[in-house]
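Dear all,

This email documents one entry for the complex benchmark we are building for the journal club exercise. For each entry we list the sequence lines for every component of the assembly. Then comes the predicted three-dimensional structure of the complex as a token string, followed by one or two observations. Please use this as the template for your own entries, and keep the labels exactly as they appear.
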Amino acid sequence: MRKNAAQRLILRGGRVVDPSQNLDEAADIVIDDGHIAAVGPEAAAKTSKGIVIDLHGLIVTPGLIDMHVHLREPGFEYKETIRTGSEAACAGGFTAVASMANTDPVNDNRSVTEFILRKAAEAGLVRVHPVAAVTAGMKGESLTEFWDLKRGGAVALSDDGRPVKNSAVMRRALEYAASLKMTVISHCEDPDLSGDGVMNESFVSTDLGLPGIPAAAEEIMVARDILLARYTDTPVHIAHVSTAGSVELIREAKKKGVKVTAETAPHYFTLTQEVLKDYDTNAKVNPPLRGPKDVEAVKEGLRDGTIDVIASDHAPHAVTDKEVEFEYAANGIVGLETSLGLSLRLVAEGVLTLSQLVAKMSVVPAVILGIPGGTLRPGSPADLTVIDTNLTWRVDPTVFRSRGRNTPFAGWELTGKTVLTVMGGRITYRDPSRWE
Amino acid sequence: MDRPKVVMDAEGIDRSLSRIAYEILEKNKGIEDLVLIGIRTGGIYLAERLRKKIAAIEGKEPPLGILDITLYRDDLLITKKKPALGRTDIPFPLDGKKVVLVDDVLFTGRTIRAAMDALIDFGRPKMIQLAVLIDRGHRELPIRADFVGKNLPSSLWENVTVHLTEKTGRDEVVIEREG
Amino acid sequence: MGLARKDLLGMKDVSAEEITLILDTAESFIEVSSREIKKVPTLRGKTIINLFYEASTRTRTSFEIAGKRLSADTINISAATSSVVKGETLIDTARNLEAMNPDIIVIRHSVSGTPHLLARLVRQSIINAGDGTHEHPTQALLDMMTIRSRLGTLKDVEVAIVGDIAHSRVARSNIYGLRKMGAKVTVAGPATMMPRDVGAFGVRVCDTLEEAVRGKDVIMMLRIQKERQHSHLFPSLREYSARFCLTGESLALAAKDVLVMHPGPINRGVEIAPDIADGPQSVILEQVTNGVAVRMAILYLLGGGMP
């Protein structure tokens, strides 16, 4: 692999879709020394030396970036490690991920951040960008050392998994982070209102006799964060938008010029709460799966640009965390290996163009986090993803590279899959059925 | 498929029951301590008719009970779908009584075995006797009827059906090859 | 004949025909319980495990008596568990029990959907004896049996269910069962105790006790969990009972021969005035008697056969 990096890589004839340069055409890509050397219809004409890979019939995009994943290490290695998470990421087409802070210990100090980066470098498959906690121990009380964490390599701040309940703490976090050009990613939930809820409050929760989480529990915090971002004129990024009300609030805020960005996860535009009918804990997630109107609103938010990013909220769990009584089961769905396939359904449905999808899964996350990547411009790191949009495959959790098997999509047939992932000029994944 | 063959008509049934009524009274020397128990479903109507006949002879009715033997069947544990349960109604004590069990057809003897087990759960009868309209043979248990309307040699591939007015609108006993 | 099902998890997936079969069968078992020797050999050699994760004297005893009267061996397991105090997991318990080869597992658990999880995991018949705030099918069946035996039918019977509908498994199972049998159901209670979109069950929703019981043939009062006061569901027991306790005054609004029911245990003076609970309209003890018969019927119809 090391040797490979130094070698010239010539990707010939793929359809290059790079919204960062408004590019959507058949083109060659020449990679030298881990960087993009040239992109263009005839870019490889003058070059003969190097490894040539023929990509006719395939799509080439800037390396996909998943700005919301849980890699579980340190502390929960039985659920996932940085290595297994990295393997899952590159298999899913990702060249970079942002890993959330709710590890044990919490990533609330520089030594944990550096530990994560060291482990990620050892795995060497994907760029792991640590997201540090907003508050010490994610307790919602005192701010972590944003400046020092940034120097250690943290790219953003979030107590994801828990809300920052105290509005004064949130206000100060937004102000302090903005001064360091860091974004706060907000998990929006009013914990008093969600109470002991385990699914969306609706007739389905009434019918199943499960305590419900009202949509308002999310929307109240989305509204609060928008008001704080407007008042302090700072950016805020809303994680995992799941309700029609949240989409509406963000849409209106954007119209008024509030610096709010937002993401959603594939399960929120693919599934409704109906899948919980048999108490399938693999579909238990927070925020919970909502109703059909919410799913439509999330899609509309993606279509009209209200929602900027698709992130998987990859949340691996062990079987022992999930094969228990519904209320005791952990929240979360593994997403790295299904995110692209599920998101491509939006292109098939006409909700997004392929170029818009690539923007939401690569270009925009890079901008929000202020990290390299998200482009195939000459000179940038050679992070790219090759997708076969015609390949139909069946989701089989038993062959996931992730340690987590907790997906409600087992057995689903998806069309479109990563067949080659290149990170820093090195091939980190190739689809075994295609290349070997 | 052979046509069903009538082996006993209404008059035949009535004559047999009259004879059985006399035999019961003869054997038991009257109706003192005598009780009739009809086994669901065919035995109920026969027991009622016997009671009327006995009453006509003796001027007094013996008590009549109804027994559903489903819960005592020995094939419950090997059948998946459970047979429908009927109500048992024995509104008098059985201790010291001479019980005449009444059924329509005596075949393997398993129903009677179940009925005897059930009766014993209700108390300690002085004795249990058995009255049947048809004995078609093929016993699988050492059981013998005390009063028989008609002995009807049959093959295992035949069905014997007792039709009674109370149930099917006519009185006759038919035998037919199994469909 | 018989129930073509492995498990009894809830009234939601039981058909009207199945309900009728269970009730008819239960009527026959009433006689068995009235005998001097209240035991039949039907389930001899069968093992029934009562797996109770939630304290319950009434339901557990009822199942135990039902099993014993059918000659089954009944074993009671009281398992204390919570998400915090982690002992053996449900899965491990289930696999262990399965290895001991019982025939039927009766489960009560404080988490909705747990019997469904168990039914997926083990090959034994599972009977739901109450799961969280979801269903309590045998309670609904004994309630329906009580109504049917008193009124002769369930069709077009007007039933009011009053109390904490949101947290009541008795209410959910009765709503499903009664509606399938053609009864008309009205629910009432404080707005805080009405679950989201409760009307979607096909029930009428009333805000006051008086409105709910007017002209009704049956009034079912639900037990109030006093600890719910802490989740802001009602301001005080005093105010709750002032509004929703069934008294002679409110009862007078109902049909003349109205049946008063309660799944027990009763908080006297909170849900029902003591004189009403013991009064001529009350069929509360009949419910208990019928409970044994209904459970015998279910054990008979589900158990005993080859798997």
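Observations: Strands of chain C lie at 47-52, 73-78, 104-109, 125-131, 158-162, 184-188, 204-206, 218-221, 259-261. The radius of gyration of chain C is 19 Å.
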